[in-house]
Specification:
Largest sheet: none
Helix content: over 70%
Radius of gyration: 18 Å
Strand content: under 5%
Shape: elongated
Number of strands: 0
Number of helices: 8
Length: 175
C-alpha cells in the first residue's frame, strides 16, 4: 500500500477509535488529543518526537496555568486591568517558552505553544474551570491535568498510527 494511503487508513481507523474512547470516557478532551497527535507528526513522528511532544505540550500547559493563577491571585490584574496584565504575562511566558528551546528536550517551540494555547482555550471556553480551586485540584477539572493528559494520549495515538501505517505498507515476503 502506498505510504500516504497507509497513513491515511491508519489515522482514520485510530481516529475513530480515539473519538469513541474519549467521548465514552467523558472527561478527556478529543480536540486536545488531535492537537497532540498532529504535534507528534509535526515534531518528526519518532520516539524522540513523542518524548518532546509530551514534555513540551506539558510545559506549555504549566505556563498557561501559571499565568491563570497569577491573573487570579495577585494584585497585578487589579492594578493593570485584565487585558494588560494578561498581555504582559503571555508576552513573558511566550519569550521564556522560546528560550527554553536551548534545552534539547524542550527544543520544539511549537509543541510548547500548542500546550499553552490548548490550555488557555480550555480555560476560556470553560470559565468555571478558571478558578484557583479548580487549577489546584488533583482531578480532571484541572486544566493542568486534563489538557496534557489528553495531548499525551493523542501523541501516543500518533505513534500507534505511524506503526500501523508501517504494517500496512509492508510488502509480503515472496516464497
Amino acid at each position: 500500500m502506498p505510504p500516504l494511503v497507509a497513513l491515511s487508513a491508519a489515522i482514520g481507523l485510530l481516529g475513530a477509535v480515539a473519538t469513541w474512547v474519549f467521548l465514552s470516557a467523558g472527561s478527556i478532551l478529543i480536540w486536545a488529543c488531535f492537537i497532540g497527535w498532529g504535534c507528534f507528526f509535526h515534531s518528526g513522528g519518532t520516539i524522540d518526537a513523542l518524548k518532546k511532544t509530551v514534555i513540551c505540550n506539558t510545559v506549555g500547559a504549566v505556563f498557561a496555568v501559571a499565568s491563570g493563577l497569577i491573573i487570579l491571585s495577585t494584585p497585578l490584574t487589579q492594578a493593570l486591568g485584565l487585558p494588560l496584565a494578561a498581555a504582559l504575562l503571555v508576552g513573558i511566558f511566550a519569550a521564556v517558552l522560546c528560550l527554553l528551546a536551548y534545552v534539547e528536550i524542550l527544543s520544539v517551540i511549537p509543541a510548547s505553544f500548542y500546550g499553552f494555547a490548548a490550555t488557555f482555550a480550555f480555560l476560556l471556553q470553560t470559565p468555571q474551570k478558571l478558578a484557583v480551586a479548580k487549577l489546584t485540584a488533583f482531578n480532571l477539572d484541572n486544566a493542568l491535568i486534563v489538557v496534557p493528559l489528553s495531548m499525551a494520549i493523542g501523541a501516543g495515538f500518533g505513534l500507534l498510527s505511524g506503526k500501523l501505517s508501517g504494517l500496512l505498507q509492508a510488502k509480503p515476503a515472496h516464497a
